Amino acid sequence: MFEETIIQSIIDAWVADQVHPGRDREQKPSPTHQDIRTILETTYLASLRHEEGRPIAFSITLFTKDSVDKELSRGRKQIIMTFKESLPFAVDALTKIAPAFNSFTSSLLVAPKSGSTSEYEIWGVMFHGPDTNIFNEIPYGDDLLLSRPDVFTMTVVFPGSILISRRDGLIGRFVDGEFVRATPEPFYSKAMGQYIINLIQSHQGFVDFNNRYWHFYRETLLYLLNASSAYHHGGTIIIVPRIKIKEYGEFIQAKYILEEKLDLATLLSRILKEEKGHALDIGRINTKKKFAERLDFLVQLTCVDGALVITDDLNVLSFGSTLRGPKWDGNTIIGPDGFGGGRDILDVSKLGTRHNSAINFLGACPYSIAFVISQDGQARGFIRIDEKTILCWLDCLSSMFIHR
Hints:
By secondary structure, this protein is an alpha+beta fold. It has 2 domains: 4-181, no CATH class; 192-393, YojJ-like (1 (3-Layer(aba) Sandwich), CATH 3.40.1700. Helix content is 32%, strand content 25%. The protein has an 8-stranded mixed sheet, covered by helices on one side. An 8-stranded mixed sheet has the order 12-14-13-11-16-17-18-15. Helix 7 (211-231) packs across helix 10 (281-301). The radius of gyration is 22 Å and the shape is globular.
């Protein structure tokens, strides 16, 4: 069903990830062409199905029974449960069983049937627990902590959209019939990060905590994008400099306005103060949890048609807003990706209304930042860097590390 070039691209990405000096990978045989073709095609077709009228999300891990003890001996713990009777790895069987397992915390285990090179079976399920982030991690050792195994995994996030990973690292994303190799997320100092840092340097939190504040601010943006992406509704998040609110008001047709503030910047600084002051672990955990709850409130606002417009210190200006800006007649260029890529001209005519509205707004409102989330889970970032150039990072979530 899929061209050989796609299968080979996935294998090449696996090999490149394994030999990359910064990835610290254990050297393992790469999945075979047959492995990848069978798993990709079956997973893709199943992702297009609906169960009880709803699309299904699931995770598939290529893992043989005789590899279990070896994998667990490397210090990575999971709970592996075996089906009394294996299931055929086929679209119908997968569609029926997948809703029973949360792709955030578990994965169905697939391997070739004994004595066969072309037939595969679902022989069990692995519970590895949810991913952690800076807002929910436990700041001390835990002998109950589970983790993803360092094996080939495909995860459906939306019909036709599949993440390909190993352990906590993303190999790439299969979407719209194409495979896109993962690159470092753009929030680092030589890419989008440098422009965001310029925007927040006047924050009191940045003055007090410098890079630690930037680190948390960056993780906050990632949290917003990942959580918004998980809704699969699509949306736009615009970040406007506080000092430009009045000036840029004519380019925002606000529909819903909230008068009071969530005061996220103050809470963020409180987190950093508690860490610096070595506050009790339970206190830090609670403050981070409350911060994440307020971020979830922001994320929910993106589900209304129109743009969520916030200030650089994370206060809501409006949501459900229409962006008004004259058509951008400058260049829109793909931003640097950390692998030496980027700088190609982006054909914005192939993008939808939501993307072009954000681009036009940035053309009229420099120093602002736009993130556009598609229904398939991709999140594109846009920043105007001069009078003739807007940079675009094609997928702020297709990074080398899994964030979901």
